[in-house]
Amino acid sequence: MALLAAGLLAPAGAEALADDDRPVQLLPGLDAQPLEPDYAPENEDVFQPQKPARSKDAVEIDELEAVGPDGTGLGESAGGNLPATIWRGSKRDYVEALMARLPTSGPSLTMRRLAIGLLATQATPPEGGGPPGSFLSARAGALAAMGEYQIAAALLANAPTSPALDAVRARIETDLDFLAGGEEFARACTHTREEVKRSGEPYWQKALIFCQIIGGEAEAGRIGLDVLRDGGEPDKAFLVLADAVLGSKAKLEALPDPTPLHFAMLKRAKRPIPESASEGANPALMRLIAASADTPMKLRLAAVERAELAGTVPAESVGKFYEVQQFKKAELTNPLKAAEKLSGPMARALIYRAILAEPTPDGQAKLMQAGFARARQDKAFPMFARVVFPLLAKIEQTPALAFFAGDAARALLAGGEPAMAKRWHTLAAEQGRSDPALFDIAVSLWPVMALAEQTTGEPFKPDLFDAWLKVNGGTATPEAAQRASLTVTLMKALGLQVPDQVVLDITLGGGNETASVPPPALVDALGKAAAEQRSGETGLLSLAALGNDGPTRASTLTLALTVQSLNNAGLALPARTLALEAALGKGL
User: Fold this and answer.
1) Residues in Cβ contact with 219 at an 8 Å cutoff, skipping those fewer than 6 apart
2) What confidence tens digit (pLDDT) does each residue in 34-49 have?
3) Could you report the per-residue pLDDT of 81-92, keeping only the tens digit for each?
4) What's the rounded Cα separation, in Å, for the pair 486 and 586?
5) 562 in Cβ contact with 526 (< 8 Å)
6) What is the rounded radius of gyration, in angstroms, for the C-alpha atoms of the chain?
7) What are phi and psi of 312, to 5 degrees?
8) Which helix (H) or strand (E) covers residue 74, if one does?
9) How far apart are alpha carbons 587 and 360 in whole angstroms?
10) Where are the alpha helices (DSSP H) in 402-519?
11) Whole-prediction pTM
């Protein structure tokens, strides 16, 4: 045990704890804006439409003639550090098709940052013809579909005029105005009346009907609404909301695929946001749901958690929402027992309140353990870890708290603090020299610490793996087998020299998964793109493979495919952060 403990204390690589080796934000300038729980949309805009003119506060647009208008991108603060060659070797029409199929609400910061980086980076467009501006419009349209309306508007701010760019610019500006509400409705309707003359897109027909109704042309709006209804308009929510704006008492039962226009109509009709709206909302609309003072707090709380997971709300805002939740005195007196009967968001809010009220580090640690356990059940561990980070960072690594080392280290890794996590790991390893239980905690951390610290080509450590496998329970149960398979799969995908025999023994050890896997055509395309170093295409295909379920719910096969492909294509940082996010979310 002493030799293994020494091995656990050794860094995973020669530069394991170097500052520039730590997992960092791919897009450090894209911090989400804080959101207050008592926020009322009538008093302040959630979205500030991006003006086309430059200002000292605007996102700087890099315009290098070498890439042309279609290659225009944002500065490093929004575009990340991706090279201008990310589309080299790719075909334009294929890349544009992939952009249109990107997941829009995946619960993953890594996925969001990678997607924005790929779409907003200034880079030479891929090969192939197309109308001027079509590639830039595809990028902006994909950003808008993700709810990144302001970044999309900034990307287009200084772009030249072309039919493709003008169409997507008008749609984004109109959506921003509909989201902002108030006087911006008038500007949105001005855009709408201009665009409906040029475009037969159904969006503009529906927007015109809304504008006619609120602009004193109710009869014209009714006629247009009847035409849509007689034509079998599939957007049933729009029909109900249009009637509501006209004065109907009809209730909107569901809003499965909400848009900014829907939210503008809800606001104008003074109707509550249906609970189903949060299921299909993009992250920006989730933020809007959370900000709606007229929406039940239960729905707002769930929305703000999902918005944090998707990266549009900072963790501190979730904490503020937790703080204002109302609980009975008995629940506050015995929070852990009461939390068992509450929904996930409310349970986490109650536990968070208890952590704030707890005066001792020991008590805080035990409450955090309970909160982490509940968050893992709901696939929300990374989010809750980031919420409690300011409190966790104040707890000192003392021998009396070594029992907490495993949870503390994992939470700190989720918060992007591997150096702080390492101190807890070291504490468990040192105390584990004389305490078998603490030794097991240190060993259990080995996979996630290795994923956070390893470098490509690093040799595999069979003694540590064997010790971890024993603590894991071998592969005796499906759950244990899945953890073991995930461990060796992610390590190998990141370039660790895991022996093929170990991979074979573990991956064939049982633990069949129920998670879906990508179609064979996507698997083949991803492998080829990575092998040929088509980094941008590899990134888009990886995001498509993960889908809106994200890495926490993805199958081991999907994770192996995406992590290895990203790593092989030169996207090492998102590959590693994705692997670590998946490992922590799946309970390693």
Assistant:
1) none
2) 766 754 333 333 333 3
3) 789 999 999 999
4) 9
5) yes
6) 25
7) -100, -5
8) strand 73-74
9) 27
10) 405-414, 418-431, 436-444, 446-453, 462-472, 478-493, 500-507
11) 0.86
